[in-house]
Amino acid sequence: MLDRHFKNVYYIFMEIRVLKYFLAVAREGTITGAANSLHLTQPTLTRQLQDLEMELKQKLLIRGKHKITLTQEGMILRKRAEEIVELVEKTEAEFQSITEIISGDIYIGCGETDSMKYIAEVIKDIQADYPDIKFHIFSGNAEDVMEKLDKGLLDFGVLIQPIDLSKYDNITLPEKDVWGVIVRKDNVLARKKVIKLEDLIGVPILASRQMFPKYSKDSGFLDWFGDEFDNLNITATYNLIYNAAIMVKAGVGIAVTLDKLVDTSKDSELAFRPFSPRLESGLDIVWKKYQVFSPAAKLFMDKLKANFAVNSNLGNKR
User: Fold this and answer.
1) Segment (H or E) for 13
2) According to the model, what pLDDT value does residue 166 have?
């Protein structure tokens, strides 16, 4: 029985190793480059890849004269393999961190928001007392962050409301973010103190994905825009504001975004103008219900509760 257990563990680690081989080939584009990076012989690597294709009963690689490309099935495996390897490495790090001295890695996903300053303060306080704890920040929209949360690749996510919290425990951060538009200072809209719905009709708009019904069901966005939403001249969409701000500077259009994410100081080419009536979004830091945390992640959660738990929904009492 014990021999069979160790055999199963051996096969698991063998499979992870082969996935790493496959990812190296996908990254390098050649067997030679991948073999060199892995410190393997080319025949050994080729045989491992052939065995992988036979096991999956799928052709994964197209072997050209100068470069290897992935088939459709290979691209699917690449995405899944990256997630599997990342999760395995994260799990190994968590086990290594279970010592008398709290250490390890904490993974946080977040949308763009000025309220990250609250999370930054907690991180600073923890690192002052626990310098062996390392934080890893992933930036993305709510969809990206929730996908990684659900797959166990993130410990926590900072999400802009409204959001479906049925799968998560959460703490609501103290401030709300204000929605409006980023415009060039030479744009006629920059002369206004606030932006009303009628000001947006016919204007080229760079729209945050947060605006759309798929991501903002039951949100204030749909109420604010009402029937005019479908009439907006949305020329582009974005999920992070940095590149959108560059497009605004280039004169592509104006960008709907949250305040305090783009430099609108005196020397900047850009200005922020809030919507009227005022449109705000709250922020939640969330984690999966019934999640078992590493000591480092539990310490972080406890610090969050101590600072912000007055505005929380904490079904998870671990």
Assistant:
1) helix 2-28
2) 82
Give the tokens for residue 93. 């790090």
Q: Where in the chain is the domain with CATH 3.40.190.10?
A: 102-174+282-313, 177-281
For 98-152, write each residue's pLDDT tens digit.
655 788 899 999 988 888 899 999 999 999 989 999 999 998 888 888 888 888 8
Considering the domain 102-174+282-313, what is its CATH architecture?
3-Layer(aba) Sandwich (3.40)
Q: Domain 177-281 has what CATH class?
A: alpha beta
Domain 2-93 falls under CATH 3.30.830.10 = no
DSSP 8-state secondary structure symbol assigned to residue 278: -
Distance CA 274, CA 269 (A): 17
Mean pLDDT, to the nearest integer, of 184-189? 96
pLDDT digits (tens, 9 = 90+) for 25-68: 988 888 888 888 788 889 998 998 888 888 888 898 998 878 89
Cα–Cα distance measured from residue 176 to residue 282, given in angstroms and rounded to the nearest whole number: 4
CA distance 36 to 56: 25
The per-residue pLDDT for 292 is: 75
R_g (Cα) of the chain, nearest Å? 24
Question: Where in the chain is CATH 1.10.10.10?
Answer: 2-93
Quote the CA–CA distance of 107 and 157 in Å, as a whole number.
9
**In the block, residue with structure tokens 């294709």:** 53
- Backbone φ/ψ region at 57: left (φ over 0), alpha (ψ -120 to 50), beta: left
